[in-house]
Specification:
The chain is mainly β. The protein contains one helix and 21 strands. β9 and β10 form a beta hairpin.
Length: 189
């Protein structure tokens, strides 16, 4: 962890008569042990990192397909889950109550019904939804959500909408609609 707000000035506030503004220095706050991040004897590269709605918890995706939820204050792993389909390319947290939703196109029901959900994206184009309140149980795997690797994934704040982009040069929007509504098909841009 790095503190990037620490300011410092050079020993002289000017060089050749030029006035200098304070520069930003990155100060290392904490170094994490690789053994705390992953149990694997073979190190795996970190491929994705995102902040969760919980203050001190981050989601870490690895090239091995492992996803760890990590408490950076306590320096401990809280949960570990595995995604099929190659390296984890993106993570997005969704939490909050907004009712029971259903996506008839994808065969999903009650997936994002108010509980904490983590969406993860793979290098082979899959998107997985995980129920974090049930030990990271896989809720649904959207196989082939993109024809190539997913490059970004994000929940729209306050909405039951998941947006993803991929190396197949597409942006896809999945709306999780209330049970009483119907779904035509996911939007593709």
């Amino acid at each position: 962890l790095w503190n990037i707000r620490t300011k410092y000035a050079l020993p002289s506030d000017s060089i050749s008569g030029m006035s200098l503004t304070p520069l930003y220095r990155r100060t290392c706050i904490h170094r994490f042990s690789a053994s705390n991040l992953s149990d694997s004897s073979t190190p795996s590269a970190v491929t994705s990192l995102t902040q969760s709605p919980a203050i001190d918890v981050v989601g870490i995706g690895f090239a091995s397909g492992e996803i760890s939820l990590y408490d950076i204050r306590a320096d401990e792993r809280l949960m570990r889950i595995y995604m099929d389909g190659g390296p984890v390319r993106g993570l997005a947290f969704r939490s909050g109550v907004f009712g029971l939703y259903d996506d008839h196109m994808l065969g999903l029901s009650h997936i994002v019904g108010g509980e904490s959900v983590l969406a993860s994206a793979s290098g082979s184009g899959h998107i997985a939804l995980w129920d974090l309140n049930n030990g990271g149980r896989l809720i649904h795997m959207m196989r082939g959500a993109h024809d190539r690797a997913v490059t970004a994934i994000e929940w729209i704040p306050g909405q039951p909408v998941l947006v993803s982009a991929g190396e197949d040069n597409s942006v896809k929007v999945v709306h999780f609609l209330k049970h009483s509504q119907t779904v035509a098909k996911p939007d593709v841009f």
